């Protein structure tokens, strides 16, 4: 046993795959301890908040500021205030009044502002510009001027008696607050999804559930395939014909089509993660059964098996003690592949809306389904779907890498 484990962990492919898989396991165990609570807790009122650190403006205003004079602060402030739409509008103005914009890049906010201050005339009436459009440029100009010349923002609060706004303070451009002194600060490494939920927290919970689905599916598929393969290969005869007939039926019908039909026939209220995992396992066993059968056929007439038969040992004992140990390594590798296949199948089903229906915990497939339903792939909110894709890829890659490493250890042909 020690020699076998030593050989396994000498395989670089197995070690890499095992390290990736263990990293994911540590994440789903440790992160909920750091950030407890339901992964489906809604913390955002809006949708698709960008990744970053969020500071409560209410608390920040009430925090005692420090005066800092940071170089180029005004330039950065004005450059950040200019959106792409504002720059396109400025280019339209420049073109209408005959300003040369050759060499001006869209990311050159300073260049845009320089040309704007030098050429904008509020009284100008460019040809083809409506009153509403000219008013838009006036508002844009006032916004830019306020950023350049404004000294402070006034903080006002309604008077308890009159209801009128009363100045209670002001925020200067040189006022800064230490984030560590602000009461409420929330870091969202992956932002929020379409429901305003923390994507990283949701992703960790989804990974845990999907691994559970893959594990249950792998156990069901491997157990069915192993049982069918052992009985078919060892007993032979009519039992072999009957089992192979059923196996061929499952093989002829595309497994994923069968999976869709069975999932569709189950009520959404009953379609939980465990049920979906069992269905995936029930439709994934044939190839394991066929492979185990071929292995058993090559073993059933060996001397040690014949000796057990002559000794009067039972069928169960012969299979468990004289055949199963010789195919144990193959069964382990088949189980790893079944787990990987189960996770991918759940993701495919969920993308079609036939995955687990749960309001308690998400799955990787459900996260993909929600992101696609709210057009995350179109509106550029990559954090809602790309981390999910990478997680599924890492899980499948690590499991398949582990399987390849085991195959190199236990397959003499590959080892040589």
Characterization of the model:
This protein has helices at 2-8, 12-34, 57-62, 73-81, 84-97, 109-119, 131-149, 199-235, 237-252, 255-265, 273-282, 286-299, 303-310, 315-351, 364-373, 376-379, 386-410, 412-415, and strands spanning 52-55, 66-67, 152-158, 165-172, 175-176, 185-188. The protein has 416 residues and is mainly α. The chain has a two-stranded antiparallel sheet with strand order 1-6.
Break the fold down into its secondary structure elements and pairings:
Blueprint: H1 2-8, H2 12-34, E1 52-55, H3 57-62, E2 66-67, H4 73-81, H5 84-97, H6 109-119, H7 131-149, E3 152-158, E4 165-172, E5 175-176, E6 185-188, H8 199-235, H9 237-252, H10 255-265, H11 273-282, H12 286-299, H13 303-310, H14 315-351, H15 364-373, H16 376-379, H17 386-410, H18 412-415
Antiparallel strand pairs: 1-6, 2-5, 3-4
What is the total number of structural domains? 2
Please report the distance between the alpha carbons of the first and last residues: 21 Å
User: What would you say the CATH architecture of the largest domain is?
Assistant: Orthogonal Bundle
* Proportion of residues in helical segments: 55-70%
Order of helices and strands: HHEHEHHHHEEEEHHHHHHHHHHH
| Percentage of β-strand residues | 5-15%
Low-confidence stretches: none
Helix count, per DSSP? 18
CATH topology of the largest domain: MetI-like fold
Report the strand count.
6
CATH C-level of the largest domain: Mainly Alpha
Q: Report the C-alpha radius of gyration, rounded.
A: 32 Å
pLDDT averaged over residues: 86
